[in-house]
Amino acid sequence: MRTHKPLNLGGFVPEWAIRFFDSISSVTSAARALGTVLLVLLLWRPASKLFSNIGFPDDYIILFLTVGAFSVSYLVVRLLEIGCLKILSLQNDRKASLRKERDLANFKKKVRMTLPHLNPKELRVLRELVESEQRMDIREKEVSWLSKSGWITKIHQAPAAEFFFQLSPVVRPLFIEFEKNRFKGMVNQTISNLTEPQRNFLELFWQEPIIHGTRESQNSMPYKIYHAGLGLVTVLGLSKSEWREGGHLCERFALNNYAKSRLEDEVYGIPPVRIEVDLNLEYVEGPGSSGGGARGRI
């Protein structure tokens, strides 16, 4: 078995220096030792001359020069080490940031691709959570899938298997954008394929005066026109509200800005006379055209 022998430099280098260099066991130590040697070789001649001129003992020149060179070498290597660690840390942070951005982009892409294929119950859950957090049963298939997929997140648990959920902040703007585009597409398709009863109902917003369905007109609105108006609440996004007046139910239908703009541009060519239409159901025919009112006297 080969044994390790100390360096033998023939008495040129002091014993303490031999022990120092012989103890090198790492790259960092080797770098410091190399720096020390290079500095000693570089500074030996001018330093020896300088110290001799001031009467410094020759036996201590090498010791003093080596200690000084080692101190400088130690600081330089340490600074380089810190700098390298800092660079590596920045690189790791950058890689982690890029990985996070890539994962986020992939998740957004998956959400956009999946949204058109969600079933009505899943869309209903998302619509409810757009408004505010909701209490839901995790055992419901749609809730469970949305939770596992990261679309909705648990806030805290309610009794039994129910939790309060909120919509993911990543999914929320994507879903709102999807709903807006879906609504615009539905409005555009509806306007491009308006039925005669739908046209007749929408003309109420452009007529002056309204010719039927109101107490002022004293004319009954055919049920098929009224029924078409009810359908436009869904496919054209008309808003609808109710109140009672003189024992009869009244309803208000209102245009939204997008539908108003599209109808103005593609159908009527001029702005509407009004954006709200108030109907008195006393003057709306029933399904059997009995003349008793669409929903009768309240």
From TrEMBL:
UniProt-recorded name of the protein? Superinfection exclusion protein B
Instruction: Give TM segment ranges.
Output: 20-44, 60-80
What UniProt keywords are attached to this protein's entry? Membrane, Transmembrane, Transmembrane helix
